Amino acid sequence: MGKARDSQVPAGENPPHFLGHRDRLRQRFMEAGGESIPDYELLELLLYRSIPRRDVKPLAKELIARFGSFAETLGAKLDRLMEVPGVGEATALDIKIVEAAGRRLARGAVQKRQLLGSWKDVIDYCRAAMAFSDREEFRLLFLDKRNFLICDEVQGVGTVDHTPVYPREVVRRALELGATALILVHNHPSGDPAPSSADIKVTHDIISICKPMGIEVHDHLIIGRQGHASFKGLKLI
């Protein structure tokens, strides 16, 4: 359907030069998959659907140059996307829909699964949800006694470098849900996932309040553009 629509050219007119490029790029994607092409070409494939009658390679390259990567382009705010010449509301919305689909896919990988045995999926989900946010978010993964996910909630959203966290509210919510374990997660919009002294203190505060209630804190993950840090892996808990 998409290929036929793109190839429709009014009678008497020569086809635009970019149609052949589109067909070749689609063919490469079909044969080798998304891992075989660079970020800007994957973004081109997305933009074809939104902008069928224009060469979108320059626009894809501009978006990658401005935001840094395919993932960071998807994670950009709607209004920031629309600041880029050539990106209207409909195109920006299509990009955000793909981002939402990616988050839903990552979330599906951790639902109804024993999280401690699916750690890569947990990291992938948290990165999809938080790595490219421009503000700090503090997220809680509430687990049952089998370490299955009960629910996932954002407890607080802050500024570029701080989110207020209230340990007693964390415990209160865990008790409401009947959770017996937690995974704490927050992001560093700076990109560097190294824990700060404040991160370490609030983690220990939460652990000290959870312990008498029979609630175990399995880990505290910090998610950044450059990777992630695990308090358990760093032996901070």
Walkthrough of the structure:
The protein is an alpha+beta fold and 237 residues long. It folds into 2 domains: 2-103, no CATH class; 115-230, Cytidine Deaminase, domain 2 (3-Layer(aba) Sandwich). Helix content is 48%, strand content 15%. The protein is built from 10 helices and 5 strands, in the order H-H-H-H-H-H-H-H-E-E-H-E-H-E-E. It has a 5-stranded mixed β-sheet, sandwiched between helices. Helix 3 crosses helix 4 and helix 7 (89-110) runs antiparallel to helix 8. The protein is elongated, with a radius of gyration of 22 Å. The protein starts with a helix and ends in a 7-residue tail after the last strand. Residues 1-12 have low confidence and may be disordered.
Termini Cα gap: 54 Å
> How many domains in all?
2
Major β-sheet strand ordering: 2-1-3-4-5
Largest beta-sheet characterization: 5 strands, mixed
Task: Using the coordinates shown, work out and report the CATH topology of the largest domain.
Answer: Cytidine Deaminase, domain 2
Question: Which range does the strand content fall in?
Answer: 15-25%
What is the N-to-C order of secondary-structure elements (H for helix, E for strand)? HHHHHHHHEEHEHEE
Indicate the CATH class of the largest domain: Alpha Beta
Look at the helices and sheets and give the structural class.
Answer: alpha+beta
- Overall geometry comes to elongated
Number of contiguous helices: 10
Secondary structure: helix percent: 40-55%
In terms of per-residue confidence, which ranges show pLDDT below 50 for 5 or more consecutive residues? Answer: 1-12
CATH superfamily of the largest domain: Cytidine Deaminase, domain 2
Second rung of CATH, namely the architecture of the largest domain? 3-Layer(aba) Sandwich
Overall mean pLDDT: 85
* Number of E-state strands: 5
Rg from Cα: 22 Å
